[in-house]
Amino acid sequence: MKGVVLQNLNQTLGRFYGMLLQFLPHVLAMLIIFLAGWVVAIIVKIIARRLMALARVNSLSEGTGLTQILKKADLPAPLDLLSQLVFWVVWVAFLLLGLDALNVTELHVQISRLFQVLPEIFVALIILFLGLLAANFFSRAALLAAVNANLPSARVVSGFVRFLIILLTIAMALEQLALARRTVLITFTIAFGAIMLSLAIAFGVGGRNVAQAMLERMFLPTRAKKEEEEKEKAEEIPPL
Amino acid sequence: MAGREGVPAGSQLPEASTISEEFLRQLTAVGEVDILVGVPTFNNRDTIERVVSALQVGLTKYFQRERCVLINPDGGSTDGTPEIFKNASVRDFGLLLTSNPLRTFHRVSAPYHGIPGKETALRTLFTAADLLRAKACAIVSPDSLSITPEWVDSLIRPIYRENFDFVAPVYQRRKFDGLLVRGLVSPVVAALYGCKIRELVGPDWGLSGRLACHFLGKDVWEEDITTFGLEVWMTTTAIVDGFRICESFLGPKIQAAKQYGQDVAGTVRQVVGALFRCLDTHEEFWKTRGAPEALPLYGFPYDVALEPIPFSKRGIMDTFRAQVDQLMPILESILTPQTLVEIRNMERLSTREFDYPSELWVKTIYEFAAAHHRSVINRDHLLQALPPLYRGWVSSFVFRNQKADAANIDQKLEALGHDFENLKSYLIDRWSAEAGGER
């Protein structure tokens, strides 16, 4: 009896020892991959940072106003932000590779899926980044044009331009990730249509008189109005 | 270049030349000349005849023995301007107190290639000056109502007889006329380039054939150079490259009505944009220049009573407040916090109290120039943020000096020029300040 118990115990411990011997190299490999990944990620980050500095990313983002937005949101400068992003993308890739080295079948399947999605996530992030740049650039251009044309609601015009571009960007990023494609498309269509319809109604009903005046000014300029406009222009001191 | 008959060896006719075959044929028929007078036109039928007659009399009266040509590069007029140019004639030279011309008076008029605009027209004229080996050139505005035959002498003589290379005009202006030039461009150029030129945006000036060729050889023509910006570039380039410059008094500046009612925002953007680009290009030059020097002035200055410019105070403060308020997020990235606070304080003033102090105006311009240099935001956006502040300064200047006479206005502008000089070190500090660093 005692012998059988000891024999079973020995066998179990032997099996456990065997499994441990079989598993430990995998763990070791995982740790080595983690460490190597960390070193590679740092090197890639430094290279990416230098390349982006050469490409004048900071000037570009300052020019388009992205730096100011990031500052307001207490985020680092675009160069730091992008280099951090590169670091994490590379290291996360190595972390997943390391986990894969454990040779656990279920984990392997999930990691493979994640690897398939990773480029899509990266592209979606780039779309978001460029979309934010475009939104800021065009909203500022709209603001300046409206102010110089002496329009009364320059900020509203600018805000509307920004909102539309951001909405479009988010829809594109989600489309890229293939997340609820139909839902995103339908939501975007409804939201866009609703905005346009509400604007049309607001302008046509709420601002009927304004709409009428604008259309008249555009298509039926009376002599008096023309004269008034010319007088206003002539009253400005010639700059040259 | 090759394959074009009649092009003298060594001339700088570029590959993408603005000279059409028709133009070249007419120039070839002219041969070499001593004096070239250019009148770029675009739908100027109302004024061109008078301008051509004045030039013809001027050339006959003052340069009787020289070989002269009058060139009209036309931007595609549809009102018959080129025909009027070709047919304009002086009926009786005797009545104009001069004798008949001794030499054949050449006239060339043809449309040029390229986008219609002053830059293409001037490039055409410079190419023509190079081809015809002109010793002295004058460029004259086609819509000047105050032109006299004496202008030809004033613009050409300093070059032809005194060996100057560039003659800038000096006009008698209406009281508040041309404040962008007199209150911004000229004082900045004087303070930084050390050269007091009163009129930097022409439109009438003289230059030597040598300088025309020099300009032609520069690579600026393919860049995004604008109508008014070109003249700022030419003047500053002439200063930096060491050409001899003088001024010549032309009398009152009265132009056809279509020149008035200019798009202020667009003009500010073009002129100031060109000035800032020149500051970038000539950084090494202006940082080391000393105090400005006055230029030799030719001609006999005189005053005539000019009709004042109408100016309306209506809603000026409301517009200034609204525009500055709306642009605040953009101005925050261009101006220093101190300057912004002072501008915000101005917003609270009533129309009667409204004052844009000279020093604040100078700091505003210098901070814009430095921000443009550092590209803190898109450069075109930056320039578009300036017109509301320019309008504010103009309004303040006009309110404060409504009762002043022209001489007093000149004194005030002279004092403003000193402020620009005194604050030059401020610009140098701002110029090299780290973007996003201490402001």
Description of the molecule:
- The complex is a heterodimer of chains A (240) and B (439).
- Chain A has 240 residues and is mainly alpha-helical.
- Chain A has a domain at 26-103.
- In chain A, 87% of the residues lie in helices and 0% in strands.
- Chain A has nine helices and no strands.
- The model of chain A has no long low-confidence stretch (mean pLDDT 81).
- By secondary structure, chain B is an alpha/beta fold.
- In chain B, the strands form two sheets. In chain B, strands 3-2-1-4-7-5-8-10 form an eight-stranded mixed beta sheet, with helices on both faces.
- In chain B, helix 6 packs parallel to helix 9 and helix 11 (316-334) packs antiparallel against helix 12.
- The radius of gyration of chain B is 23 Å and the shape is globular.
- Mean pLDDT of chain B is 85; it is low at 1-7 and 435-439.
- The A-B interface holds A 58-59, 62-65, 67-68, 71, 77, 137, 140-141, 143-148, 150, 152, 154-155, 230, 232-240 and B 176-181, 201, 228, 259-262, 264-265, 267-268, 271, 309-312, 319, 322-323, 326-327, 329-330, 332-333, 375-379, 381, 384-385, 387-388, 390, 394, 398, 435-436.
Helix-residue proportion of chain B:
40-55%
Q: Biggest sheet of chain B, strands in spatial order?
A: 3-2-1-4-7-5-8-10
* Basic shape of chain A: elongated
Q: What Rg of chain A is obtained from the alpha carbons, in whole angstroms?
A: 31 Å
Q: What percentage of amino acids of chain A are in beta strands?
A: under 5%
SSE arrangement:
The complex is a heterodimer of chains A (240) and B (439).
Chain A: H1 2-54, H2 57-64, H3 66-72, H4 78-100, H5 105-148, H6 154-177, H7 181-206, H8 208-219, H9 223-234
Chain B: H1 21-30, E1 35-38, H2 48-62, E2 68-74, H3 81-87, E3 106-111, H4 118-131, E4 136-139, H5 150-160, E5 166-172, H6 179-193, E6 195-196, E7 205-208, H7 209-216, H8 227-240, E8 245-252, H9 264-281, H10 283-287, E9 293-294, E10 297-298, H11 316-334, H12 337-347, H13 358-374, H14 379-384, H15 387-400, H16 406-422, H17 424-432
Parallel strand pairs in B: 1-2, 1-4, 2-3, 5-8, 6-9, 8-10
Antiparallel strand pairs in B: 4-7, 5-7
Helix pairs in contact in B: 2-5, 4-7, 6-9, 6-16, 8-9, 11-12, 11-15, 13-17
